[in-house]
Amino acid sequence: MTTLSCSASDLVPLLGGVTNATAAAAYICGQFSSVSTRFSDTTYAIDSTYLLFSAYLVFAMQLGFAMLCAGSVRAKNTMNIMLTNVLDAAAGGIFYYLFGFAFAFGGPSNGFIGKHFFGLRDIPEPGFDYSYFLYQWAFAIAAAGITSGSIAERTQFVAYLIYSAFLTGLVYPVVSHWFWSSDGWASPTRTHNLLFDSGVIDFAGSGVVHLVGGIAGLLGALIEGPRIGRFDHSGRSVALRGHSASLVVLGTFLLWFGWYGFNPGSFLQIAKSYGDGSTYYGQWSAIGRTAVTTTLAGSTAALTTLFGKRLLVGHWNVTDVCNGLLGGFAAITSGCSVVEPWAAIVCGFVASGVLIGCNKLAEKFKYDDPLEAAQLHGGCGTWGIIFTALFAKKKYVNEVYPGRPGRPYGLFMGGGGKLLAAHIIQIIVIVGWVGVTMGLLFWLLHKFHLLRISAEDETAGMDLTRHGGFAYVYHDDENGDLSQKNVFMMRKVEPTSVTPPNDNQNLPI
């Protein structure tokens, strides 16, 4: 931050023959310094307030994830999925505080992992304040929330606790250190030895957040296998529809709202001029542009998915549109700050095709993901990384990542292929790191029978067998508890029956 300065020795000659010129100069400079200090304090306060507000928006995405997940599973597992979303935030808060933030941003350190600020020791300091920790924690638990959707409806509760702590405490922080810390080996803010003279431009985390969460969810779902009844004896896909489209839409809008903290908030500060002599254009303008590109990518992906699925399946499906919208957001997250608004439309259009294609592949290979999380965040996140390397604009790259003239930018914008090479490396190392760490963890949980619930529990539903009752209470007995007998009587079946109804029924099963 540029500071104002005043020197009494320089001011004395300008006062001429004024009596006590030296004292007058000292007084004037003292007042000037007070104003400068107050101006500096105000700027820090504005930037900190902006970052905190952005952190609150990103944290609100947890509510969006909870509603989206709840609506996308069957009613008999609603309480389970809601509880896992709460614990993603709670467990992530503790482990990111103890280890994760230090591993991610604890510099000075090596290019692989941070080594300072464990338990927020020595915070605040000139580079970091508490608001920065809160913002980064909200990102970490977002990655954990992505993973929980992929393994919903058949995972033991203890497995959620273990993987959430491991992901937020080690796996995700190491990746964020690589690409977001100034010490990271592939960071674009590194002062020397930049990867392909560029580093990776993953501004808000198509790779760091979405691809990490998507790959972790993919591995967990593959090791667990599909839900009972997801594929019939001949291998054909059977739809196990979520019980509430209303919750899906509510969750989608909450995520949309939170994305304005996720992407524009990643600038970290708003009161910054670009020094081009303009009084109306600065980082505040770039933040506005980033919000626009985010909006256009998501909107385009939603509309493209709407008409694409209409042609493929013959009807309009609101859940598909919601997933398409989120796929567009996941894709634009990497390059939102360095591309033109028209390029964001291209991003959203292709993201929709990527999502539809990934879902077709998942069905072909009998992969079961209740929320399409791996396809949406992993597939569209990967496209977002490539998209940024193709469409990043030179002017915006130099504004967002200043101090290095001649930095490579988008291939299609005339910037050569170095940025694309760096981004391909990013995809490879994220898949490799998450594959080894999370794959090993899920395999060990499976080996020790800590991953998947029993077939009986899965058929009856985890709300009843693991959480003491259904999320939706239709009838209370005299003690105020859910009467299982009356629930079955309402559905006109025998109390001893636990056979699931068809997919169009919305009562708890």
TrEMBL record:
<feature type="transmembrane region" description="Helical">
    <location>
        <begin position="50"/>
        <end position="73"/>
    </location>
</feature>
<feature type="transmembrane region" description="Helical">
    <location>
        <begin position="158"/>
        <end position="180"/>
    </location>
</feature>
<keyword id="KW-0924">Ammonia transport</keyword>
<dbReference type="GO" id="GO:0005886">
    <property type="term" value="C:plasma membrane"/>
</dbReference>
<dbReference type="InterPro" id="IPR001905">
    <property type="entry name" value="Ammonium_transpt"/>
</dbReference>
<dbReference type="GO" id="GO:0008519">
    <property type="term" value="F:ammonium channel activity"/>
</dbReference>
<dbReference type="InterPro" id="IPR024041">
    <property type="entry name" value="NH4_transpt_AmtB-like_dom"/>
</dbReference>
<dbReference type="GO" id="GO:0097272">
    <property type="term" value="P:ammonium homeostasis"/>
</dbReference>
<feature type="transmembrane region" description="Helical">
    <location>
        <begin position="420"/>
        <end position="445"/>
    </location>
</feature>
<feature type="domain" description="Ammonium transporter AmtB-like">
    <location>
        <begin position="50"/>
        <end position="472"/>
    </location>
</feature>
<keyword id="KW-0472">Membrane</keyword>
<feature type="transmembrane region" description="Helical">
    <location>
        <begin position="94"/>
        <end position="113"/>
    </location>
</feature>
<feature type="transmembrane region" description="Helical">
    <location>
        <begin position="244"/>
        <end position="262"/>
    </location>
</feature>
<dbReference type="InterPro" id="IPR029020">
    <property type="entry name" value="Ammonium/urea_transptr"/>
</dbReference>
<comment type="similarity">
    <text>Belongs to the ammonia transporter channel (TC 1.A.11.2) family.</text>
</comment>
<feature type="transmembrane region" description="Helical">
    <location>
        <begin position="200"/>
        <end position="223"/>
    </location>
</feature>
<keyword id="KW-1133">Transmembrane helix</keyword>
<keyword id="KW-0813">Transport</keyword>
<dbReference type="InterPro" id="IPR018047">
    <property type="entry name" value="Ammonium_transpt_CS"/>
</dbReference>
<keyword id="KW-0812">Transmembrane</keyword>
<feature type="transmembrane region" description="Helical">
    <location>
        <begin position="133"/>
        <end position="151"/>
    </location>
</feature>
<protein>
    <recommendedName>
        <fullName>Ammonium transporter</fullName>
    </recommendedName>
</protein>
<dbReference type="Pfam" id="PF00909">
    <property type="entry name" value="Ammonium_transp"/>
</dbReference>
